[in-house]
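User: structure tokens for this one?
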Amino acid sequence: MMNNSDKSFLDEKKATATTISITGGTGFIGKHLINALSHFPDLELRALTRSKAEGHLLKATNVRWFYGDLENLEILREFLAPGGVLVHLAYPTDWNSTRHLSAAEELGRVAAEVGVKRIVLCSTAVVVGNAKSRRVNEDTICSPVSDYERTKLSIEQTFATLGKNAYQLAVLRPTAVLGAGGRNLFKLARDLTQGSLTVNYLRSSLFGRRRMNLVCVENVVAALGFLARREQAMFREVFIVSDDDDPLNNFRDIEIELMTQLGVANYPVPPFPVPQQVLSGILHLGGRSCTDPKRIYDGSRLFRAGYKKTSTITQSLKRFAVFFKGID
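Assistant:
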């Protein structure tokens, strides 16, 4: 059954026939996106995956599956639709940076060759790397540190370069994505249910009110759907999607809510707050790009464009807890 959140970015009365091609169709975000879009028969969906087994598990009458990877140019030419939209989610974790960039260049060239109208690229908010700004927005100068950050930013630049006079480009930069089927918070949930009480207590004392920078997968899906369907032309526009405006989006409040949902008793003694300078120093020693526990990602540009959220952190945490209990 489709809930209201699935329908928020697609108005059945205003919808027009559109072909949306989705890479990474059986990935975490891809599954949620296809589930939301599959309820709208006016949309023709095309989904690319390397896994035939997982593709068959997603039942949707308006989805046509293509089996292959980003390096198969013959499949890509069939998969992409002239005048359609490409939502690019795929990011194979077993590829190195060179392979990722080569695949992005080929995909961009084929998209231009086929005549794709728009590419919606799902990147990541952490491409800003170790930028000194505490409040990060789309205008923050990126200073990527890790291979992942540098590769993601280079992919953005590759599509932007190839897209000149060829296709529109909208880049979505989500923060850490939370939701059923995702890996963010999985280790925390496992530690809370099976780990050492002492270790959990010390971690809670250390992290305290550190910003978690989570974003609900439902909100990421809503943003992708909004950008794919937006009537206004977009030429290398960048948008952050974040739930940092949710007051619950800090470690201690997330931990308390997760404990409640998983039936874990709270600590008998409230965690002892450790100065955040200590945590910042530990993050620096650990080689983290961002060592500021108070960093906030500002997603207000997306709101000004007309995007609307479909979930709160609390709602997504509840769905995540149900998922975790089902597989734990």
